[in-house]
Design goal:
- The two termini are 51 Å apart.
- This protein has 14 helices and 31 strands.
- It has an 8-stranded antiparallel β-sheet with strand order 11-10-16-7-8-15-12-13. A 6-stranded mixed β-sheet has the order 2-3-1-4-5-6, sandwiched between helices.
- The longest helix is centred in the last third of the chain and has 21 residues, at 559-579.
- The protein is an alpha+beta fold.
- The chain has 5 domains: 4-179, Rossmann fold (3-Layer(aba) Sandwich); 192-276, Translation factors (Elongation Factor Tu (Ef-tu), domain 3); 295-365, Elongation Factor G (Translational Gtpase), domain 3 (Alpha-Beta Plaits); 372-479, 2-Layer Sandwich (Alpha-Beta Plaits), CATH 3.30.70; 483-595, Elongation factor 4, C-terminal domain (Alpha-Beta Plaits).
Length: 598
């Protein structure tokens, strides 16, 4: 066991985690030169194109240290984006140490600090690595100061590397062996294994990624999931190398895969504890947390005939992604669809992209919303994330919405605009921490619903890309939320309804009305587009009608003939307005609903 090292790589987005993992795999001979490609552990096309890690991945590497001993290095590559922090948490639970990667030009950023606290929660040994030292803007000495001041780690232990060129990779491998501790655990005790990830294989079912904490697991053993309370029989187990490498058994301290005939990721729970059905452990591994959906949105097929295809596509995606939840939904304007729960906006964006790319389905996505907690006047409480289920305002005693504690790291010259941006998004408290010369952390408490739309884009714009943003959910607080309905020709369009704080209701209603007025084609009668709260109109745009020149055929005569024809046209238009149907094209829904999230 002293020759095993279980470690993960944690960092802010785009600080070079996946590139460093590639170099470590190459240095250990984990893959041949012919089989190698960039972002080796990122299996999805969308991960490679965007340069982000969405799913954490693991690989076991054989390494011969300078002292002549052979070591087994179990590397877990983790996502950097805040939406997937639950993946990072589970990966940390499976490790004893972590490489803390910091960009030599950008320095310590918000997600770096957040991941540091996550790692310290699980008592991990940290080895700082300063990456991208080959860049012209690299400032290793300044970054060492930030590692000391912001992270509280030994700046002289930090290893300068260039994951792109391969400089310093041998030093990192030596540091992993020397500085990071080996696993602890007794292979003779009852089995305890942590399921930290899983993916679906269409031929073999769900392949579980596990870290054995205590005991020994062999093929043909019957395993018991302690949270899901289900039993399965192990068909195969082994190490995750570039290909699956079957073994006879996995013992305490080892990381590997298990194939046990599980048909769907939804049959089990990621983060669960596995034990033997015949000799169970007394209690599960502590620290288990379910992934919590915080953003909700309705998805409809652009063509109503694609509903069956959309159903199958979501089923297939959910097999691989246990964090995605969905239930049936319907709209008078868009037909049948699904109400889906996501971990954040990036998660929503990734799912939407995969549905369109992998299954070729055109989609209409409703404006994302958060879950509100309502207390009714009869004393009962309900959770509402869909405007369609918003109760009568007369029945609501109070409403509360989720708040977050946002941490924004920015260069000193942008502090004023950043604090103004937070105030615009209903920030309730702001504090500033001076980290190092020229760098300030702004800590602000604000509603999660305010961050869903344009906050991150505006932050990047006003800080010229140097601002970084991270948040943690804290609590629900009382709020004044209203439901805004959009009426087209005095008929409500249920898909366009949204929940918003009363102060922001009018500005967003104006935006919706103006967008719809541009996208809905003109009819033979005047069409009012209105935003209303209850019976009060708060915004309006008007689509002017076509006007046929009914007096064109007249070539003279008394003016009363002209008046008679115009009067007849006026009555016809009034009748048409009363009975006429307004056709809202799909692109109108897309333009309105995506306008806030672009």
């Amino acid at each position: 066991m002293k020759h095993i090292r279980n470690f993960c790589i944690i960092a802010h987005i785009d600080h070079g985690k996946s590139t460093l993992a590639d170099r470590l795999i190459q240095a250990c001979g984990g893959v041949t030169q012919r089989e190698f490609h960039d972002q080796l552990l990122d299996s999805m096309d969308i991960e490679r194109e965007r340069g982000i890690t969405i799913k954490s991945n693991t690989i076991s590497l054989d390494y011969r240290a300078p002292d002549g001993h052979d070591y087994l290095l179990n590397l877990i590559d983790t996502p950097g984006h805040v939406d997937f922090s639950h993946e990072v948490r589970r990966s940390l639970m499976a490790c004893e140490g972590a490489l803390m990667v910091v960009d030599a030009s950008q320095g310590v950023e918000a997600q770096t600090v957040a991941n540091l606290y996550l790692a310290l929660e699980h008592n991990l040994e940290l080895l700082p690595v300063i990456n991208k030292v080959d860049l012209p803007a690299a400032d290793v000495d300044r970054v060492r100061e930030e590692i000391d001041a912001d992270l509280g780690l030994d700046p002289f232990e930090a290893i300068p590397v260039s994951a792109k060129t391969g400089v310093g990779i041998e030093d990192v491998l030596a540091g992993i062996v020397d500085k990071l501790p080996g696993p602890t655990g007794d292979s003779e005790r009852p089995l305890k294994a942590l399921v930290f990830d899983a993916h679906f294989d269409k031929y073999r079912g769900v392949i579980l990624q596990c870290r054995v904490m205590e005991g020994t697991l062999k093929t043909r053993d019957t395993i018991h999931f302690m949270h899901a309370d289900r039993d399965f029989t192990v068909d195969e187990l082994g190490y995750n190398q570039f290909k699956l490498n079957p073994k006879e058994q996995l013992s305490a301290g080892e990381v590997g895969y298990i194939v046990a005939g599980v048909k769907s990721v939804q049959d089990i729970e990621i983060g669960d504890t596995i034990t033997l059905a015949s000799h169970p452990a007394v209690e599960p591994i502590p620290g288990y947390q379910e992934a919590k959906q915080v953003v909700f949105s309705s998805i409809y097929p652009m063509d109503t005939g694609d509903y069956i295809d959309l159903t199958k596509a979501l089923d297939k995606l959910a097999i691989n992604d246990a964090a995605l939840t969905y239930e049936k939904d319907s709209s008078a304007a868009l037909g049948f669809g699904f109400r889906c729960g996501f971990l954040g906006l990036l998660h929503l964006d990734v799912i939407q992209e995969r549905l369109q790319r992998e299954f070729d389905i055109g989609l209409v996505i409703s404006a994302p919303s958060v879950k509100y907690e309502l207390t009714l006047k009869d004393g009962s409480t309900i959770d509402v994330d869909n405007p369609s289920y918003w109760p009568d305002p007369m029945k609501i005693e109070s409403a509360s919405e989720p708040y977050i504690k946002a941490s924004i790291l920015t260069p000193e010259q942008y502090v004023g605009p950043v604090m103004e941006l937070c105030r615009e998004h209903r920030s309730e408290s702001q504090t500033m921490n001076y980290l190092t010369a020229g760098r300030i952390e702004v800590v602000s408490e604000m509603p999660l619903g305010e961050v869903l739309f344009d906050f991150y884009g505006k932050l990047k714009m006003i800080t010229r890309g140097y601002g970084s943003f991270d948040y943690v959910r804290i609590e629900y607080r009382n709020t004044d939320v209203v439901k805004v309905d959009i009426l087209v020709n005095k008929e409500p369009v249920d898909t366009l309804s949204y929940l918003v704080h009363r102060d922001k209701a009018r500005s967003r209603a104006l935006h919706y009305c103006e967008r719809l007025a541009k996208e809905i084609p003109r009819h033979q009668f005047k069409i009012p587009v209105q935003g209303v709260i209850g019976g009060t109109v708060i915004a309006r745009s008007t689509i002017q009608p076509y006007r046929k020149d009914v007096t064109e055929k007249l070539y003279g005569g008394d003016v009363t003939r002209k008046k008679k024809l115009l009067e007849k046209q006026k009555k016809g238009k009034a009748k048409m307005k009363q009975f006429g149907q307004v056709n809202i094209p799909q692109k109108a829904f897309v333009s309105v609903l995506r306008a806030d999230t672009d």
